[in-house]
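Hi, does anyone understand the following?
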Amino acid sequence: MDLSYTPEAELFRSEIRDWLEANLPAGWCAASAEGQSLEMTPDERKAFNAGWPAKLFAGGWICATWPKEYGGKGLSTMEGVVLAEEFARVKAPLRADFFGDTLVGPTILQWGTEEQKKEFLPKILNGTMRWCQGFSEPNSGSDLASLKTTAVLDGDEWVINGQKVWTTGGHHADYCFLLTRTDPDSPKHKGISYLLVPMHQEGVEVRGITQPDGTAEFCEVFFTEARCPKDNVVGGVNNGWKVANSTLAFERGMSATTGYRRFEEEFKLMLADATDNGAVHEPLIRQRLMEYYTKIQLLRINGLRSLAATFAGSKDLGVAALGATNKMFWTEMHKAAMELALDIKGASSMLVDTGAAGGSWPGTSRDKGREGYPVSPMMSAFFFSRSETIWGGTSQIQRNIVGERVLGLPKEPQPAQ
């Protein structure tokens, strides 16, 4: 692993630090340096959330690694790493719309036509178009290629019928990047296309899936004779499986040198709690804390290894599998760590006022605490950790990917049809 930061990269780091200091609320950076979050009233937080995307856009930091001709800054990979590190250092949001900035935008850059790039990328950059992901179906989650939603060409439009589920933010989205079957007679991986579908139309019904805390950020989406233009296919008709794998790679491979930071902060919180209540003197608790710390360092080193391989242009399959292995590693690590956090607190972990009032658990941005289902930020992080081994590809699927594509093991037997 050979990864070094050039003098030019460090100069760029100083530029980003100066911009953050000038544009974040007063005291934000100082609080982050102390491992704290700036105390803000709900109104102040709401105002910050509303105004921050515009500041990011004005600074050119949204999708800054995109080519200049498509609205980015054309940053090098190293500059992009430094940018992500500095925003992570002070816990400043770096995205306007996750699905647009991080998933469908890079996918359009890689696979889209010039017309698609000119139509969609500027709206992703300036935050005027919000996206959702239409992949999973009620019976096609981990086995995504078994999806049943169909699209049939009718003149200059695709006519879409089917159902998607666990569509985060579907009730707010303007467009959906949708996987749909366009050739029912082809093998299941071969007859899928990747469509960009407008959500605000007749034939698209969005139903929120209400969670125990009363929120409904996950949605079901029903398509009944919905339509999208013929030219909204990304990467070619019946080539959607390859395109979708690019999208999933962007989701699994982001934040190579920054992802571990939130776990380090959680470790510090757990250690402080265990020290305060004496749990640190229990051999098993102490052992589990050190196991968590060790795994965080492994995650950090693997991130650096993956990045170094990227700079070196490595085509090694073992390196290529780091996205799958890292995703599997950190999600299972975090799930066990949040169980440890509850064990350190004991029965008091079930109290809504356990721990800080909000924002101190980096594993979540959800200060649940809603009327009717109050929960502490720590417990919120625990709940969310249960989902991390599922979204973006379950741990079982990640193991299959590594076993079959890297280790060359026999494919998993398929059930008789």
User: Anything to note?
Assistant: The mean pLDDT is 86. The two ends are 47 Å apart (CA to CA). DSSP finds 13 helices and seven strands in the chain.
